[in-house]
Amino acid sequence: xxxxxxxxxxxxxxxxxxxxxxxEVLVYVCRRxxxxxxxxxxxxxxxxxxxxxxxxxxxxxxxxxTGLIIRPMQFYSEISEFLKDSG
Length: 87
Fold this sequence. Notes:
The chain has two domains: about 1-30; about 35-85, no CATH class. With about 90 residues, it is mainly alpha-helical. It has helices at about 5-15, 20-30, 35-45, 55-60, 75-85. Helix 1 runs antiparallel to helix 2 (about 20-30). The mean pLDDT is about 75.
C-alpha cells in the first residue's frame, strides 16, 4: 500500500462518506488475494509441528491458499525429486 492509495482513501472518506469509502476498501482488498490469505497462512505456519516430514512441508507450500503467499518457482515434482535425491 502506498501513500497515494492512503491519501485517496482519506479523500473519499472526507468528501463522499463512509459507504463509498468502504466500497473502495472492499475493491482494494479483493484485488489482492494474497492480502486475504495472509492471516490464514500465518495461522497454518504457527500450527506446523517441528517434526514435519519433507512431504508435509512440501504439501504446505503448495496448498491452494498458502501458495498465494509462498509461491515456489519449481513444480511440485521437481522439488520432490530433488528432496529424494539429496536425502
